[in-house]
Fold this protein.
Amino acid sequence: MQIACPHCQTQNRVEDTRLAEEPNCGACHKPLLSGAPLAVDEAQFQTLIKTLARPIIVDCWATWCGPCQSFAPAYASAAEHFAGKATFLKVDTDQQQNLSGALRIRSIPTILVFEGGREIDRVNGAMSSGQFKAWLTQFF
């Protein structure tokens, strides 16, 4: 799997079997899967959902969506706040239309929570940083 480092954007090749080992970037040595949201395609999404044991929080968004853009800082703040407790992913619904359809995304932003390979909750619409972090605490 190719993962772009959320810190320095360097492409890193990571074996699927090593994802649970919390791999670091080969260039900047920061964690690839915590501390910052990770933009994923359908293949990466499927692999991460099946491989990681901890909760996975997914932001389904689009570049043209105003509420998505206003929610992005709150999402990034939560990713940093809960680093090590969850993995935060971003799915661009325009770029990943097949995945968006499979996830039944009808409005954006939609936030999904996965644990053990299955969806356990979802919420539609933007929230403030405080509201979002408070909502997330139920999963940790």
Notes: The beta strands are 2-4, 11-13, 38-39, 56-61, 87-92, 110-115, 118-124. Residues 66-81 form the longest helix (16 residues). Residues 33-139 form a domain with the Glutaredoxin fold (CATH 3.40.30.10). The helical segments are 42-51, 66-81, 97-102, 129-136.
